[in-house]
């Protein structure tokens, strides 16, 4: 897929979104109190996430990602200067890493080279091997992601002294529990599958009472810090037989398959064969775009994505470019908050 094809048509009209710089519970509010923009048919509605139960109907199915977030950030040094290292397990039995500026991981470091050594402050280091999965800066200015070989037990080190991956727009650091969802059961995501974050146990129970089905899938997320025009990296996923049967039945009966996030969408659409979902697992490089649209998912709960992000292409593939633009225009006008602790959108 060309770089150009990975640029969505949705624009921000020169406006800059506001970022949520902390979890909503830091202000003694429930997670489901974040705002929810509903784009259904020609209408835009402004609600709270807890109102989701009124927007869905019996027979709809929510596809949820059961991956739990793990620590993926640690202080390190490279070429004698302090950096922040982001690390996640890669598809080749080694690691995928990103070098970012200290102290707050505010920007990517793009001038590393194969063979460079990265020393980790509190444990064994690693060596950069090659760009992953190819030269990953669409600007052509250096490289962002690397395959790397660890010199010791990096996973154990991250679990012991690492922290959740975070970026410079946050007001301080937040514990790993802030990056988990009620659906997370299987550790493995480098960054939170954040569309599921506003769900609470009480909201899930209310949805089940309404007759909304819950179908679990698994997708361990990679890094979410893509540059404009950069596609998502290969990610590990699994769709089980029970979920495959449920999704096929709901589609045959005319129900809506609403994915909770781009990660759940990617997992489902990676398991489609001949227009049906089949039990599948492995590493996926599927990128959902208007040119290669979803075959199963026809509704989406999502956060708000930066202009130029490839995730916006997935939203456009489900909602259409016109509805996506209307939703983003409304969100910008009403001051919705972006990023992992921010507000939400339901597109039907």
Major β-sheet annotation: 9 strands, mixed
What sort of overall outline do the alpha carbons produce when their principal axes are compared? Answer: globular
Mean pLDDT: 92
Could you say which structural class the secondary elements and strand pairing correspond to? alpha/beta
User: With helices defined by DSSP (H or I, 4 residues minimum), what is the helix count?
Assistant: 7
- Give the neighbour order of strands across the main sheet: 3-2-21-19-15-4-13-14-18
The level 1 CATH classification of the largest domain is Alpha Beta
Distance between the termini: 27 Å
Strand content: 25-35%
CATH architecture of the largest domain: 3-Layer(aba) Sandwich
CATH fold node name of the largest domain = QueA-like
Question: What is the fourth-level CATH superfamily of the largest domain?
Answer: QueA-like
Order of helices and strands: EEEHEEEEEEEEHEHEEHEHEEEEHHEE
Protein name: Queuosine biosynthesis protein
InterPro entries: QueA, QueA_dom1, QueA_dom2, QueA_sf
Keywords: Cytoplasm, Queuosine biosynthesis, S-adenosyl-L-methionine, Transferase
GO biological process, one term: tRNA queuosine(34) biosynthetic process
Brief synopsis:
With 348 residues, the chain is α/β, with parallel strands linked by helices. The chain has 7 helices and 21 strands. The chain has 2 domains: 226 residues, QueA-like, CATH 3.40.1780.10; 89 residues, no CATH class.
């Amino acid at each position: 897929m060309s770089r150009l094809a990975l640029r969505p048509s949705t624009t921000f009209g020169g406006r800059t979104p506001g970022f949520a710089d902390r979890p909503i519970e830091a202000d003694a509010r429930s997670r489901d109190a974040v705002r929810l923009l509903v784009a259904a048919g020609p209408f835009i509605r402004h609600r709270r996430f807890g109102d989701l139960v009124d927007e869905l109907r019996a027979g709809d199915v929510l596809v949820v990602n059961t991956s739990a977030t793990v620590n993926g950030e640690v202080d390190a040094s490279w070429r004698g200067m302090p950096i922040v290292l982001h690390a996640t397990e890669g598809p080749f039995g080694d690691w995928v890493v990103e070098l970012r500026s200290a102290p707050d991981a505010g920007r990517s470091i793009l001038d590393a080279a194969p063979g460079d050594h990265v020393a980790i402050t509190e444990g064994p280091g690693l060596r950069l091997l090659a760009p992953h999965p190819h030269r990953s800066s669409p600007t052509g200015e250096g490289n962002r992601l690397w395959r790397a070989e660890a010199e010791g037990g990096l996973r154990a080190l991250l679990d012991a002294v690492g922290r959740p991956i975070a970026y410079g727009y946050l007001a301080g650091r937040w514990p790993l529990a802030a990056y988990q969802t009620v659906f997370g059961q299987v550790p493995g995501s480098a960054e939170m599958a954040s569309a599921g974050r506003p769900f609470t146990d009480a909201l899930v129970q209310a949805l089940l009472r309404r007759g909304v089905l819950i179908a679990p899938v698994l997708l361990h997320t990679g890094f979410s810090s893509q540059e404009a025009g950069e596609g998502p990296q290969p990610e590990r996923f699994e769709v089980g037989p029970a979920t495959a049967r449920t999704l096929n039945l709901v589609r045959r009966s005319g129900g809506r398959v609403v994915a909770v996030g781009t990660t759940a969408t990617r997992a489902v659409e990676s398991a489609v064969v001949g227009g049906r979902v089949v039990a599948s697992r492995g590493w996926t490089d599927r990128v959902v775009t208007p040119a290669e649209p979803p075959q199963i998912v026809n509704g989406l709960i999502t956060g708000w994505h930066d202009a130029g992000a490839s995730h916006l292409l997935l939203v456009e593939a489900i909602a259409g470019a016109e509805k996506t633009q209307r939703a983003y225009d409304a969100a910008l006008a009403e001051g919705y908050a972006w990023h992992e602790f921010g507000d939400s959108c339901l597109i039907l």
